[in-house]
Write a structure and sequence with these properties.
heterodimer; A: mainly alpha; MetI-like fold; B: alpha/beta; Rossmann fold; six-stranded mixed sheet; about 25% strand; globular
């Protein structure tokens, strides 16, 4: 028995705790769910901190040597850094004297003096970085943090919008049937008959040509949401068809509940598990889809970083044995995605009053 | 009587719910014998442990069940409770077979019935395909399916509920079992079909000289077919003995209560006796009779004229086939009285109820509520009347929203119809109604699944009462309940009618219940009214053949009249 049930009988004016309050109480009992919640909250906090510039502001600074080793692998050989260093050294060697044929030779002395007035501080590039560096010597750890900003936001916002559209359309098609169902089914058929990448590209092309979705992240989110609603739509439609004729919905009609109330107050909580599972699947899918879009040049601009662009870079690095960028982006993605899936599972259980 | 076929001794079963709680003890040391060539009835309410005991014999209990080590089920010198999986699989279906309550869900919808019967024969009897098919046809003929050669190729959905149950029986007797376990085999069926199935089981039992363990909540059913009766309550055997002794000289108050709480055709007490009357009181409930009937001067609250409802089924690409569900139904409902509506499944009685509420659109006709035709009102105008006609559905497990607390369920209709000045007043009213229908106040905070079927039906009644309706349509409202709980709910409905002057339309296939509660009875068949008369009149002097047929299918029980 939960605490709710032992409420003293002589407290009739107390408002009954809502579905969400009870769900929260049940979620707190669930260790796996709570751990997942903490992890997801950590990632969200990281994303926010990075967005406000609290951390990883200087992610684009080239602080280390090219492909700097992670500090736990300090001794490992770094051929790329040596090659770069050799190149730099070659650049500093005195130039071949061409003064007898060079018409600008008389001015060199003057320029030399002027150049000496400008202070050039040679930055000593670090040999190692906490989790290694990329080709330009940028800190991979900071890149991951900065990259989470784009990836998580795109994944979450895109999935939320896609599931929202799918749920509303699915509810309408399944509940009303008839003409509305036919119309939405045709939309669904058209969307699913076009190959997925082609569809995304078509949307991306329109978005870029008209500029109507704005630039960068917002356009990615909208592209993904507008192409990704079909899965949730189809499942929600099936659930609504099933539930629309259940007796409890008929009973709600009998007491005079409006159609909207029956659709979203009565049926929705009973089918919310489908939406939740779809949400977690789509967050994962959209984080990956952003990679494809970025790779094809429709994604984030080149001056930004996301887990997707990091993974795209990592393909070339892996061949020369530089695995840390892949590891960093892949691990953070895996942790977040796993935690998110487990969290939605726990949420689904918590929202079901039958499971204690 | 001959030797004992199956001997159950000290059967004790617990269910582990979770780690925190102590295991729930469902069966507390039950012992009974099943002699060969006899029918033993296991009778009790839901939760009495009767089904669990039968499942334990077959080794079909869920994972979390614990059977106490001293429990025994001796069959042919072996203890079934300790038999290995392989041994049990050889016994199940061959020596001991089972029929479940719901034939619709027990048959696999994607195989023909012939294939399903054949599968059993091939598994246990080692028959070939052709041989199994021939035998399946024989079996279908034996259980009374017409045209077995044709029907052997039918899919389950092409058959009626009664025929499906016959197929289940054919599968169960396919291997000539020594023991047939029938778990509420007739509860989901109409009264006329129920009678046929009971007769079939009885004749098969005699013919094959097998034993039958018949599980039911309705003591009335077993009088016709059982030799021995075992009465169970809360996991204990309260009384057992030959059927004659149980019916004529019940010893335990619980058995007496079970016998008394079923409404009877020959008398109509003011209140039905319930279990508590026997268990606590002096065992002599109030037996004062209630007078029923209508008179021409009764004011009419609801009048239906020429109601028609036709459904259209799609046929082929563009074709439509009209299926008339209700044909030219007219009746009057007097204020404060009860109109019973009886008929078999598919007779259109539920459609009448739903059409009155405008949950279905009528094809034609008039529904005059205090002189206004409800069917022509706009949705907005209907809202005012919606409050005044309410419906209680058959299945209390399906008609309450599982994700809403009872409080929310009760307050919502008041909010929609702006009953009560503010939220606080509505909550107060909800608490009062809970009390009125006999539920504790904590129920307000609970969810539907935490209640039993009878309690849920009370909640559904309370939800209707929030709107202070004038007419209440009870659509098979007590059919899904155990007889003992049914009596409580019927008493509640009667009390509410006496208190608030409600008018009821009581839809049911159970003639005894309708007789008890109704002033006037309307018999429906194939969408049409067959006969309509005052309730005593129709039971005493049925005019139509169909009515007589319905009346003759009521299980006689054991001439209950002798008991009292």
């Amino acid at each position: 028995m939960s605490a709710v049930l032992t409420t003293p009988a002589q407290a009739p004016v107390q408002e009954s705790p809502g579905l969400w309050m009870l769900a929260w109480r049940r979620l707190r009992q669930d260790t796996v769910g709570m751990v997942s919640l903490v992890i997801v909250a950590f990632f969200l906090a990281m994303m926010l901190a990075s967005y406000t510039g609290l951390i990883a502001k200087d992610w684009a600074k080239e602080k280390g040597v090219s492909y700097a080793n992670p500090s736990f692998l300090a001794g490992a050989e770094n051929l790329e850094a040596k090659a770069m260093a050799a190149k730099d050294a070659a650049a500093k060697a005195p130039p071949v004297d061409l003064s007898d044929i060079d018409p600008l030779a008389p001015y060199y002395g003057e320029w030399q003096k002027r150049a000496e007035k400008i202070a050039v501080t040679e930055v000593k590039r670090a040999e190692t970085l906490p989790f290694g560096g990329d080709k330009w010597g940028r800190d991979v750890l900071k890149k991951v943090i900065k990259g989470s900003e784009v990836s998580i936001f795109v994944g979450l916002a895109g999935a939320l919008i896609a599931v929202f559209i799918g749920t509303v359309f699915g509810a309408m098609a399944g509940y009303w049937g008839g003409f509305i169902n036919d119309l939405l089914e045709w939309c669904y058929n058209i969307f699913t008959s076009i190959p997925y990448i082609l569809l995304i590209l078509a949307f991306a092309a329109v978005a870029q040509a008209t500029g109507s979705f704005g630039k960068g992240i917002v356009s990615i989110i909208l592209i993904l949401a507008l192409t990704g609603w079909t899965g949730p739509y189809r499942l929600m439609r099936a659930e609504y068809i099933k539930h629309a004729n259940r007796e409890y919905v008929k009973a709600a009609q009998a007491i005079g509940a409006s159609n909207r109330s029956r659709m979203f107050v009565h049926i929705l909580p009973n089918v919310s598990h489908v939406a939740l599972v779809q949400l977690s699947a789509h967050v994962v899918g959209f984080i990956k889809a952003e990679v494809i879009l970025s790779f094809l040049g429709f994604g984030v601009p080149v001056d930004m970083v996301s887990w997707g662009t990091m993974l795209a870079e990592a393909q070339n690095e892996l061949v020369i044995g530089k695995w840390w960028q892949l590891a960093a982006a892949g691990t953070s993605m895996a942790i977040l995605v796993t935690a998110f899936s487990l969290l939605t599972d726990s949420l689904r259980d918590a929202l079901d009053p039958k499971l204690k | 009587m001959t030797d004992t076929l199956l001997q159950v001794q000290d059967l004790d079963i617990r269910f582990r719910v979770d780690r925190k709680h102590e295991a729930f003890r469902a069966v507390k040391g039950v012992s009974f014998d099943i002699p060969s060539n006899t029918t033993v009835a296991l009778v009790g309410e839901s939760g009495s442990g009767k089904t669990v005991s039968a499942m334990a014999i077959l080794g079909l209990l869920p994972e979390n069940a614990i059977i106490a080590p001293e429990s025994r089920a001796m069959y042919g010198g072996r203890d079934l409770l300790k038999a290995s999986l392989g041994e049990m699989q050889a016994i199940r279906g061959k020596d001991i077979s089972i029929i479940f309550q719901e034939p619709m869900t027990s048959l696999n919808p994607v195989f023909t019935v012939g294939e399903q019967i054949g599968e059993v024969l091939r598994l246990h009897m080692g028959m070939g395909l052709r041989q199994a098919r021939t035998r399946a046809i024989e079996l279908l003929g034996e259980v009374g399916i017409p045209d077995p050669q044709l029907r052997v190729n039918s899919y389950p959905h092409e058959m009626s509920g009664g025929q499906q149950q016959r197929v289940m029986i054919a599968m169960a007797i396919a291997c000539e079992p020594k023991l047939l376990i029938a778990d509420e085999p007739t509860t989901a069926l109409d009264v006329t079909i129920q009678k046929q199935i009971l007769d079939l089981i009885a004749s098969l039992q005699e013919k094959h000289r097998m034993s039958v363990l018949f599980i039911t909540h309705d003591l009335g059913v077993v009088g016709d077919i059982a030799d021995d009766v075992v009465v169970m309550q809360n996991g204990l055997v309260q009384e057992q003995g030959p059927v004659k002794a149980i019916f004529e000289h019940p010893q335990h108050p619980y058995t007496k209560a079970l016998l008394a709480c079923r409404p009877r055709l020959d008398r109509r007490p003011k209140r039905l006796p319930v279990i508590d009357d026997f268990m606590k009181g002096d065992g002599r409930p109030n037996l004062a009779e209630r007078k029923r009937g209508t008179s021409a001067s009764d004011p009419i609250i609801l009048e239906v004229k020429g109601l028609n409802k036709t459904f259209f089924l799609k046929e082929g690409l563009f074709g439509k086939r009209a299926v008339p569900a209700v044909r030219n139904v007219s009746f009057q409902l007097p204020k404060g009285k009860t109109l019973g509506l009886v008929g078999e499944s598919g007779s259109g009685k539920t459609t009448v109820g739903l059409t009155l509420m405008r949950l279905h659109d009528a094809t034609s006709g008039e529904v005059l509520f205090e002189g206004r035709d409800l069917l022509t009102l706009t949705d907005r105008e209907m809202m005012a009347y919606r409050r005044r006609i309410q419906i209680i559905f058959q299945n209390p497990y399906a008609s309450l929203n599982p994700r809403m607390t009872i409080g929310h369920t009760l307050v919502e209709p008041m909010r929609i119809h702006a009953i009560g000045a503010d939220e606080r007043e509505r909550v107060d009213m909800a608490f009062q109604l809970l009390k009125r229908v006999g539920l504790p106040e904590q129920s307000f905070y609970k969810y539907p699944h935490e209640f039993s079927g009878g309690q849920r039906q009370r909640i559904a009644i309370a939800r209707c009462l929030t709107m202070k309706p004038d007419v209440l349509i009870c659509d098979e409202s007590v059919s899904a309940l155990d007889v003992s709980v049914q009596a409580q709910v019927l008493n509640l409905l009667q009390d509410l009618q006496d208190e608030y002057g409600l008018s009821y339309i009581f839809i049911s296939h159970d003639l005894a219940v309708v007789k008890y509660i109704s002033d006037k009875v309307m018999v429906m068949n194939a969408g049409e009214i067959v006969e309509m008369a005052d309730s005593d009149e129709i039971y005493r002097h049925p005019r139509e053949e169909y009515t007589r047929k319905l009346l003759s299918s009521i299980p006689k029980g054991w001439e209950i009249a002798k008991v009292a």
